[in-house]
């Protein structure tokens, strides 16, 4: 594993999706407030810390696409634009979009007749799609294309007469969307014990799909249990697993080999951010999930010389820098970045917004 020094925060390399100007400048107005809030806890500068950044970290292509959809919709149609559920699981992202004119709702009956409506990156059940059509709501679907791919896989398996098993977490909006997209009963499992409890004959033709915020490592045990239990079972190729989830988890495992403590930037309701913290703990490294630098507890890094820093797929890079600034209030900081996978995937905007994006690029 190679670690590359960064002479300053201004030297961060925004590769791949981090090259988006929207992603780079998304929360600039928030940073000073959070740093000041965190700095009040302890202003003593008494230690030297080496901060190593995971690579990759932060925004994935699906999150960038979802945020871009809301922003381009506001530019094209004007405010307000209504968004069902949080566009992504990050409070700072949601609040920033609210300031631009987005209005977030949980149910479609909160949306006025004919108002522009955006479905979140997590996807929605078909019942929601039908309700939007009945109410004549112009819809922009920000569902991550990798989530849509899971929907298509599930429908294909069901059309071939197989009973569908979904590996995921109950109550997660992506899981609710997938279960409501397939058009047939779906059996949800999250553990090997759940597999044994399935009320299905062992010779039943079965297929499985997985929640995209679960990695190959997360699902390996459950998939093995399914294959032991059912003789006639099929599932997606491992290459169909969400690249962002796997890449960020693998990077944290590498980071744990050299870090004394891991800080994960992300929201408490973000499944993938919580999993990054859990992986750190599984690797035997004290690990903490924080929304921003204002939540940094100086006790976590007291006496520590090597700090590992990463971010969940819905956390902007600005919040990573915000945490580094909070650490600078505690002592001298040297920042470096791990070598890792360079993500160059980009997802296209809906057709209604593509011309708008090209026009904006020409203006810039």
Structural class: alpha/beta
- Estimate percent helicity: 40-55%
Distance separating the two termini: 38 Å
Task: Name the CATH class of the largest domain.
Answer: Alpha Beta
State the helix count: 14
Write a structural description:
The protein has helices at 21-25, 28-39, 61-77, 91-100, 126-134, 145-159, 173-181, 192-197, 216-229, 243-255, 271-282, 298-301, 317-328, 351-363; strands at 3-6, 47-53, 81-84, 102-105, 117-119, 139-141, 163-167, 186-189, 206-210, 233-234, 261-265, 287-290, 306-311, 331-338. The strands form 3 sheets. The chain has a 6-stranded mixed beta sheet with strand order 1-14-2-13-11-12, sandwiched between helices. It is built from 14 helices and 14 strands. It is flat, with a radius of gyration of 21 Å. Helices cover 41% and strands 18% of the residues. By secondary structure, it is α/β, with parallel strands linked by helices. Helix 10 packs parallel to helix 11. The two termini are 38 Å apart. The protein folds into 3 domains: 3-60 and 243-338, 4-hydroxy-3-methylbut-2-enyl diphosphate reductase, catalytic domain (Cobalt-precorrin-4 Transmethylase, domain 1), CATH 3.40.1010; 62-143, Rossmann fold (3-Layer(aba) Sandwich); 146-240, 3-Layer(aba) Sandwich (Cobalt-precorrin-4 Transmethylase, domain 1), CATH 3.40.1010.20. 43% of the residues are buried.
């Amino acid at each position: 594993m190679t670690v590359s020094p960064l002479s300053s925060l201004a030297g961060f390399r925004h590769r791949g999706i981090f090259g988006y100007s929207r992603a780079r400048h998304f929360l600039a107005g928030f940073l000073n407030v959070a740093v000041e809030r965190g700095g009040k806890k302890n202003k003593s500068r008494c230690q030297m810390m080496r901060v190593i950044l995971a690579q990759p970290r932060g925004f994935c292509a699906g999150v960038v696409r979802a945020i871009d959809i809301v922003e381009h919709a506001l530019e094209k149609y004007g405010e307000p634009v209504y968004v069902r559920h949080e566009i992504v699981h990050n409070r700072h992202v949601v609040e920033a979009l609210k300031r631009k004119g987005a209005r977030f709702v949980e149910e479609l009956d909160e949306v006025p007749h004919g108002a522009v409506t955006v479905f979140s990156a997590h996807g929605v059940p078909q019942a929601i799609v039908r309700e939007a059509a009945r109410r004549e709501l112009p819809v922009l679907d920000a569902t991550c294309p990798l989530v849509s791919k899971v929907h298509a896989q599930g429908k294909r398996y069901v059309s071939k007469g197989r009973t569908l098993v979904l590996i995921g977490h109950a109550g997660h909006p992506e899981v609710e969307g997938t279960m409501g997209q397939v058009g047939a009963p779906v059996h949800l499992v999250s553990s090997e014990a759940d597999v044994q409890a399935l009320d299905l004959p062992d010779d039943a033709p079965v297929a499985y799909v997985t929640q995209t915020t679960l990695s190959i490592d997360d699902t390996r045990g459950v998939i093995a249990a399914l294959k032991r239990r059912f003789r006639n079972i099929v599932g997606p190729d491992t290459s169909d697993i969400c690249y962002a989830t796997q890449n960020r988890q693998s990077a944290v495992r590498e980071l744990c080999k050299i870090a004394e403590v891991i800080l994960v930037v992300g929201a408490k309701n973000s499944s993938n951010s919580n999993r990054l913290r859990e992986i750190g703990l599984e690797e035997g490294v004290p690990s903490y999930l924080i929304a921003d630098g204002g939540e940094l507890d100086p006790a976590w890094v007291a006496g520590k010389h090597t700090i590992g820093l990463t971010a969940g797929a819905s956390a902007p890079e600005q919040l990573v820098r915000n945490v580094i600034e909070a650490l600078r209030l505690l002592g001298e900081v040297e920042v470096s970045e791990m070598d890792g996978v360079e993500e160059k995937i980009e997802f296209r905007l809906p057709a209604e917004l593509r011309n708008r994006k090209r026009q904006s690029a020409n203006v810039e």
